[in-house]
Amino acid sequence: MRVPKASICATLVAASLAGYPASGDALALQSSPDGPSVLQPVEAMARVEHEDRKTRLIKVIEGSFIGDATIYQALVSHADLPDFARDMPLLRLVFSEKVFFDTDRTAIRPEAMKVLALVTEALRADVPDVALFVAGHADARGDDAYNYDLSLRRASAVASALFDLGLGDRPLWKIGFGEAVPIAPNDSVENMALNRRVEFLFAARAEVIAVWVAQQALTVCEGYSEATRATCREKIASLPLTVALPVYNTRTASVDPMQAGRAVIEQSARVTSVDVEAKTETTPIEAERQIVPITRETPIIIHLTEMRVTLGEPRF
Predict the structure, then answer these.
(1) Residue 95: how many CA atoms within 13 Å on its side-chain side?
(2) Which of 91, 117, 169, 178 has the CB geometry, 3.0–4.6 Å to 148, for a possible disulfide?
(3) Which of 221, 235, 236, 215 lies closest to 283 in space, CA to CA?
(4) Which residues pair with 224 in a beta bridge?
């Protein structure tokens, strides 16, 4: 029996693009079906791509026959993005743990491959430079170190499967949060199930996702009651920083995602991570607006308690 369709959480009202182009806005070239190419602001193009992406992802979750999924939207303020003149949109596609994994396991369930094949198909229809973070989350059972490792290994397994399914050479980062970013209090079986989840985060640039992730302390805990909000913030404080590691596709052959989705993906070493010394460059969320570009090879350090972003991989 088919489960109910996933819900769409409209936390972002469609923003008007009136007023573009503004002086100083970056421009991109867009082909017009009725004539020569015209210049469009990068931010405006990102809004259009965002709406197209949302439409494709809605089809993904409507085509999924297992588990529950939710699409969330957000706007990241241009005040927090050094090289953007407009607020930038972000999409989160959130699946519960039971869609992909058995309890306390990192091997992807065979029936989940259709879901990942649909996600891969949607991404292949997207612009080639769309940034994607795969984020793993756990509940509060077990110790902090174990939960962090479990969430990161699950994110790695999903990233590996996407590449095996034919994702191609898209910019992709994996990140684990352990139990540090709960979306519900860990006070019942049902709530803990909500917290064990895998999230896909999409935006035009990795900077947009990184800033939103670093600001989760401002947003995640707001859905809590006043009595439990302090507990939520304490959980976030238990993981002062985490690292989004770039992953690469070492597969070169073309793959049909729907065909590949019929096979069980074994855990493999097809995805590799960058390991570099920590750097001193900083992309502050505060008002300094120092421009430090994030490339697809850049590990991104997320300081949850300080709500800022730095580049490089720290040595713990």
Answers:
(1) 26
(2) 178
(3) 215
(4) none
Omega cis (within 30) before 21: yes
Residue 274 and residue 300: Cα distance in Å, rounded?
Answer: 11
pTM: 0.76
Q: Residues, the chain, total?
A: 316
Cα gap 145→293, rounded to integer Å: 31
- Residue 257 CA to residue 137 CA, distance in Å, equals 25
CA proximity to 57, closest of 199, 165, 171: 199
The amino acid sitting at 186 is N
Name every residue whose Cβ is closer than 8 Å to that of residue 75 and which is 6 or more positions away in sequence. 12, 15, 87, 88, 89, 90
Q: Which of 150, 167, 171, 161 is nearest to 247 (CA)?
A: 171
CA distance 137 to 200: 12
Q: Kindly state the DSSP code that residue 63 receives in the 8-state scheme.
A: S
- Residues forming beta bridges with residue 245, ordered by sequence position: 174
pLDDT 10s per residue in the chain (316 long)? 222 333 333 333 222 223 323 333 343 434 444 554 444 567 788 889 999 999 999 988 887 666 678 899 999 999 998 778 889 999 999 888 778 888 888 999 888 898 899 999 999 999 999 999 999 999 888 888 999 999 999 999 999 999 999 998 889 999 999 999 888 888 888 888 888 889 999 999 999 999 999 988 777 777 777 777 887 888 888 888 899 999 988 764 444 544 443 333 333 323 333 333 333 344 444 433 344 568 888 899 999 888 899 987 665 5
Residue 57: its H or E element: helix 42-62
CB 276 within 8 A of CB 246: no
